[in-house]
């Protein structure tokens, strides 16, 4: 079974990778009080270059190896294009979306159709659509009110069929259907009466299911004689890394990612009915990730290990030499995004930190790695900072794998050694169950170009570094997780990268929460903060989680705090930034999407109201047509124009004038426009 997407949405990482415009333009700049201003670059990189649409993005080679697809603008909106592989003159748009654009697409295994997902203004009620490449007909395969498509699978033995989870019967649970791709007709495979997810065998039968117990553990069931029978359990300590990847070709066993009896996640095989798995691949340092299977035989082929940067490893003997060649041709980040049905070609996303990302095609038979396209060619003509992997010790001796980017003027050799201190932005990732990785980061490039160093920290609870590291974050929101960020700040000061009074904190989702925590729990630590869709009250956050997160509710309770117990409720209150709003002393900028189903608008509304009542300055930016993060390039441009002016006022960095960056945006400044110089004026001319 080829699993395309499993939509287990948690508080996730926000930002789409932005793109470029046709021409790089020179921009005037405001004066700053940065150190050694004579060494500043002569021009700013326009925000439009970093946060606008890319020339092309999300490349895919079709399963038959004859065609390619990608997302590219049509009248300024990202749409899907299809053409012959490598022949861009033959590529034409197969969608004509004029709204927020199409965020994700993939191919049917028979190469006859292209699928894409889309929600409405960020509400995350994802629908699955298909495009008939012969006729151009587009059909919604999940045309039901309020439905959210999930767990989308294909199997090469069943051409013309896609498996989709839909929650139209009960918003909490996704029933699993076979859907005829041509007609859209669906037939029920299994009704979901309380399982987190199902694993289908290669005959499209639901054979294995996983359920979250009240203690946060994962209980695995196996179906026999039309009944679900308990098979084995995975404790809460192991559940964060546990995942069943699929069946073997003979439907006799399953492949899993598993941390039981070990710290880091291993790829294992477990025959049906057995309880002792066989390890296939593992590392003592990091989790096994990005496992690739043969699309036809379902045999595991390769995997990645990602400490500072990902390194690929072969499982199949035939791939040992080709993958050695692949690694020799990679020096930055890399992800395998698609495979041809015969596994001869892989679509590989590659990104250096200071160059445009490139989609490449890897020939598994020869080891050759060739370019498909460069996403942002103009980027390569610019002076960009280099990202450096660093390992920072926490106060309790954990290794915090982090990424440091220093402005060119502070580190002209770009070796990660600052010649003088510069203001620093602590950029905190979302999740928290995710991680920062090496590669091209438009936020980091934007900030370093404005004169700020950027530090991205994989604090405890970040994934990929073993279960002990993840579980060290349990019930440590605004506790040890925040201490890790403070320790990283102190490390940067000790290294001469920045000074104590020149550090801001910024992030989205959990990173937004970390920003609010930074300004409330440690009010002297940061000069200002930028919070994007961050929760301010953990009690109301858990009360308002989407219904389709029901299977993860106990996971949240065990990791954050259980509101149903006196102790848990007290912990949630103590760790909520709104409880400590009186302690805010430094400037705050908040960005929010009105349709956010994860961190609802009320999370931003309530802390802004609390600050207003206490006459604490805050600027609140709201987007009526956005959800958990900002998807439309016009909205990204407008928000980062505001954030740039805000940070410039706070830390003294360079500022590109707002200009026409509000054009086409739905931006509304609900409160506090007067606290950012020039903002009210530009809103009046929007």
From TrEMBL:
Chloroplast as a keyword of this entry, yes or no, is no
Q: Which UniProt keywords apply?
A: Hydrolase
- UniProt-listed InterPro entries: 6-blade_b-propeller_TolB-like, AB_hydrolase_fold, Peptidase_S9_cat
Has the keyword DNA damage been applied to this entry? no
Task: Tell me which Gene Ontology terms the entry assigns under biological process.
Answer: proteolysis
Output the Gene Ontology terms for molecular function.
serine-type endopeptidase activity
Peptidase S9 prolyl oligopeptidase catalytic domain span: 442-653
Alphabetical list of PANTHER family matching this protein: DIPEPTIDYL PEPTIDASE FAMILY MEMBER 6, SERINE PEPTIDASE S9 FAMILY MEMBER
Q: What is this protein called?
A: Peptidase S9, prolyl oligopeptidase active site region
Its source organism is Alteromonas naphthalenivorans
């Amino acid at each position: 079974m080829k699993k395309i997407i499993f939509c287990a949405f948690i508080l996730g990482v926000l930002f789409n990778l932005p793109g470029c415009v046709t021409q790089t333009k020179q921009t005037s700049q405001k004066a700053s009080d940065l150190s050694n201003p004579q060494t500043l670059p002569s021009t700013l990189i326009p925000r439009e270059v970093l946060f606008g649409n890319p020339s092309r993005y999300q490349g895919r080679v079709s399963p038959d190896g004859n065609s390619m697809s990608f997302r590219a603008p049509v009248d300024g909106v990202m749409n899907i294009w299809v053409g012959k592989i490598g022949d861009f003159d033959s590529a034409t748009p197969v969608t004509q979306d004029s709204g927020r654009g199409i965020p994700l697409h993939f191919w049917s295994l028979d190469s006859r159709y292209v699928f894409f997902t889309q929600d409405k203004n960020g509400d995350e009620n994802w629908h699955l659509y298909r495009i008939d490449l012969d006729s151009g007909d587009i059909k919604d395969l999940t045309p039901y009110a309020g439905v959210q498509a999930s767990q989308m699978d294909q199997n090469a033995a069943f051409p013309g069929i896609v498996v989709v989870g839909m929650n139209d019967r009960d918003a909490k649970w996704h029933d699993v259907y076979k859907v005829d791709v041509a007609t859209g007709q669906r037939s029920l495979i299994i009704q979901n009466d309380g399982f987190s997810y199902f694993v289908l065998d290669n005959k499209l039968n639901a054979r294995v299911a996983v359920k979250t117990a009240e203690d946060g553990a994962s209980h695995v069931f196996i179906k026999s004689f039309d009944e679900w029978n308990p098979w084995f359990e995975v404790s809460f300590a192991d559940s964060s890394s546990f995942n069943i990847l699929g069946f073997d070709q003979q439907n006799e066993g399953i492949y899993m990612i598993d941390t039981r009896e070990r710290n880091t996640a291993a790829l294992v095989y477990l025959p049906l009915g057995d309880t002792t798995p066989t390890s296939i691949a593992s590392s003592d340092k990091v989790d096994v990730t990005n496992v690739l299977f043969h699309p036809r035989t379902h045999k595991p082929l390769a995997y990645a290990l990602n400490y500072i940067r990902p390194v690929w490893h072969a499982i199949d003997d035939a791939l040992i030499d080709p993958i050695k060649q692949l690694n020799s041709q990679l020096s930055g980040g890399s992800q395998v995004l698609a495979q041809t049905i015969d596994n001869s070609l892989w679509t590989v996303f590659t990104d250096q930190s200071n160059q445009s990302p490139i989609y490449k095609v890897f020939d598994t038979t020869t080891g050759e790695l060739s370019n498909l396209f460069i996403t942002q060619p103009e980027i390569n003509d610019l002076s960009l900072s280099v990202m450096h992997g660093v390992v920072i010790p926490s106060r309790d001796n954990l290794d915090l794998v982090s990424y440091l980017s220093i402005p060119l003027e502070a580190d002209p050799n770009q070796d990660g050694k600052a010649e003088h201190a510069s203001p620093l932005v602590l950029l905190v990732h979302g999740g928290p169950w995710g991680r920062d990785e090496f590669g091209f980061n438009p936020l980091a490039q934007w900030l370093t170009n404005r004169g700020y160093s950027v530090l991205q920290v994989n604090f405890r609870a970040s994934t990929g570094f073993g279960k002990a590291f993840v579980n060290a974050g349990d019930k440590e929101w605004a506790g040890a997780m925040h201490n890790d960020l403070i320790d990283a700040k102190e490390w940067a000061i000790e290294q001469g990268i920045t000074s104590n009074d020149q550090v801001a904190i910024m992030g989205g989702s959990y990173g937004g929460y970390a920003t609010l925590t930074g300004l409330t729990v440690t009010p002297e630590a940061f000069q200002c903060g930028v919070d994007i869709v961050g929760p301010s009250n953990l009690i109301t956050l858990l009360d308002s989680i989407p219904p389709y997160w029901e299977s993860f509710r106990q996971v949240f309770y065990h990791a954050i705090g259980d509101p149903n117990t006196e102790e848990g409720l007290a912990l949630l209150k103590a760790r909520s930034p709104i409880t400590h709003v009186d302690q805010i002393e430094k400037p705050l900028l908040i960005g929010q999407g009105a349709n956010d189903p994860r961190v609802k608008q009320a999370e931003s509304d309530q802390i802004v109201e609390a600050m207003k009542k206490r006459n604490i300055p805050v600027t609140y930016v709201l987007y009526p047509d956005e959800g958990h993060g900002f998807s439309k390039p016009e909205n990204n441009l407008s928000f980062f124009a505001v954030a740039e002016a805000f940070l410039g006022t706070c830390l003294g960095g360079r500022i590109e004038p707002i200009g026409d960056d509000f054009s086409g945006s739905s931006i509304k400044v609900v409160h506090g426009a007067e606290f950012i110089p020039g903002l009210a004026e530009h809103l009046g001319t929007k």
